[in-house]
Amino acid sequence: MKKIQMVDLKSQYDKIATTVNASIQEVLDTNTYINGPQVHQFQKSLEEYLDVKHVIPCANGTDALQIAMMGLDLKPGDEVITADFTFAATVEVIALLQLTPVLVDVDMDNMNISIEGIKRAITPKTKAIVPVHLFGRAANMGAIMALAKEHNLYVIEDNAQAIGANCKFSDGTKKKAGTIGHVGSTSFFPSKNLGCYGDGGAIFTNDDALAHKLRGIVNHGMYERYHHDVVGVNSRLDSIQAAVLNAKLALLDQYNEARRTAAAKYNAAFSGHSNITIPEFDLNGDDHVFHQYTLRIINANRDGLMQYLLDKGIPCAIYYPIPLHSQKAYVDSRYKEDHFPVTNQLVKEVISLPMHTELDDEQIKFITDSVLEFLK
Ligand SMILES: *Cc1c(COP(=O)(O)O)cnc(C)c1O
């Protein structure tokens, strides 16, 4: 059996090496390392793929979130609501811009931000909601957009984990995650569903004026050369990374389908087990692109299972072991433990198994057999 990896980027690369190498070689031959034609081409291709008017490439997913918020003219002290159960980057940029993060609990069934939690957290100072499409599953954007409209709030989607996922609305229409709020962001970190071979990110919006503003912010606040109209940053996607992304974007749907197929095989093995809650998803649907495959281990020794798997050479991980409201950098006397019952439970129960585009049946069987053996 091939060695099991949490994310197998090498096996994936081996299959696309010719295309990717040629794409990178083109950058080397023309030596247009910054703002080369590859960046522009990727921007256009991603706009088309996502069906969004504007993609603004930038240096990474954390910058993308920060720049998205800078574009919205939020003022220090404005409250921004986001999920307690996510990667720290989301809350980090809120705090960095001197906005006030307001963490709310998530829902048990989809691990995404709780609509009831958002409702309870809205105050006259609230200016924005940042839903995260966690682990690849689209958040409930219909309900979030309705709340935002009612309270006149911005919605900034952190789509670092769910590029390609669709959000389905009550009228049956679908839109790509990241393109529904006023602005969305993503990351092209190598292990993300659309990963480059270094750092990369992008911002999405359908708002022409906001897009113009964001294009200046990523480039030192310049709209005309050496005229700095706003305080900006230096955040660029370089041409070599864009060249990699051009080769991989064409394969994104196929890659996400491979992840769903692996998830369905895992689910089939674990379904009905009294100690395991599987991530339910619609096999024919596309609202979940499985950035992570995350189980809840109920009334059993989750940490023992993790050690057991690691000892057998099966990588696994806890995303995320500590709620954000308990992190030193983000403690706030307004938070009470009973505001976060679901997150507090999830951090003790979740375990993520290997998930990538190259898992084969032998590996999946070895992993599922090992989990079931431990929980016997
Ligand atoms: C990866 C990630 C980010 C940050 O992306 P980087 O490119 O690593 O800066 C932000 N939010 C979430 C939810 C992520 O998973």
UniProtKB/TrEMBL annotation:
Tell me where on the tree of life, at the top rank, the source sits: Bacteria
What stretch or stretches form a coiled coil here? none
Q: Name one GO biological process term.
A: polysaccharide biosynthetic process
Q: Which GO terms describe its molecular function?
A: pyridoxal phosphate binding; transaminase activity
Has UniProt tagged this entry with the keyword Thylakoid?
no
Q: Which CDD domains match?
A: AHBA_syn
Q: Which family does it belong to?
A: Belongs to the DegT/DnrJ/EryC1 family.
Q: What is this protein called?
A: DegT/DnrJ/EryC1/StrS family aminotransferase
Species for this entry: Flavobacterium rhamnosiphilum
